[in-house]
Amino acid sequence: MFKVVICVLFIVLLLFAGSVQGNTCPVAYSETGSAIPLYENTSIYLKSENITTKIHAKHIYERTEYVLKNCANSTVNQKLLLPFYKLSHETAIPQSVNFTVDNKSYDYNWTDFYWKDTISNRTNKYVCVGYELVFLPYEEKTVCAEYTLDYYKNEGRNEYGYLTLTGTLWNHSIEYANFTYYISKDLKDIQITGLEGYIEISEGEYKVIHKDFYNWTPEENIKITWYWWRDSLAFVEIPSIIATFCITVLLSNRKRNLIPGLFRGG
């Protein structure tokens, strides 16, 4: 019975799916070939970013644009990553990324990256787009990535996250950052953090969330959560009923173990 209860609880947890993407960041590579944060100073910095995202019940479309600048009077070869993080097996890393540099298609590879951010104080594994750029003195380059993330679980609680904190690895403030989210009106109970003071408007089938930052050093990641269920009542009641059942069974079994005679009639 205990194993059955654990399995049911696991199913409840799978009602919550999520994805996380993040700011491009500078890295180095260890002797083993693993990507590690670049803690030494670099003359390259993230000058600006424009993030546009459309969030639907079953998928997310995102376009990220970064302007990187070399502030030194020398040529610099810089290794970089664009991170993705799998919150659950229900979330897909994009099968492909339309990746360009200065409006031209650019080669990339997939690589793993382990990073411990200063907020959660936890090390996570990120699956990343890895690429390398050569900057001439004082040169700027525009990096753009477009991709779609599918939510294979059609119903339940979902989560979108954007790792702004990877932007702190540049050791330089971001001069301008723009975040625009088109959130489908089919989604319910929308919760947003990391975009305090955002502007909200209605545009057709979307609720549009917009926030600008200037001379910005990120201090909090962006997180958007929502419910989507065909039956608006079911998404609240079903998980609660299952959880209540599991807790009741566990407590009942515990009482049987503590007072066996009571349940065996003496």
Question: Can you describe what's shown?
Answer:
This protein has 266 residues and is of the alpha+beta class. The protein has one domain (2-263): Immunoglobulin-like, CATH 2.60.40.3680. It is built from three helices and 17 strands. It has helices at 2-13, 234-258, 260-263, and strands at residues 16-22, 25-29, 35-37, 44-55, 59-70, 76-86, 98-101, 104-105, 109-116, 123-135, 140-150, 156-163, 174-184, 188-193, 199-203, 206-216, 222-228. The strands form two sheets. Strands 1, 2, 3, 6, 9, 10, 12, 14 and 17 form a nine-stranded mixed sheet that branches. Strands 8-7-11-5-4-13-16-15 form an eight-stranded mixed sheet, with no helix packed on it. β15 and β16 (206-216) form a beta hairpin. α1 packs antiparallel against α2 (234-258). It is globular. Mean pLDDT is 80; it is low at 2-17, 232-237 and 262-266.
Structural class: alpha+beta
* CATH class designation: Mainly Beta
Distinct helical segment count: 3
> What is the terminal-to-terminal distance?
23 Å
The amount of beta strand, in percent, is over 45%
* Relative helix content: 10-25%
Name the quaternary structure: single chain
Domain tally: 1
Question: What's the gyration radius in Å?
Answer: 23 Å
Uncertain spans: 2-17, 232-237, 262-266
Tell the overall outline: globular
The CATH architecture category equals: Sandwich
Question: What's the total count of β strands?
Answer: 17
| SSE sequence, one letter per element | HEEEEEEEEEEEEEEEEEHH
Note the main sheet: 9 strands, mixed
Mean pLDDT across all residues, rounded?
A: 80
The name of the CATH topology is Immunoglobulin-like
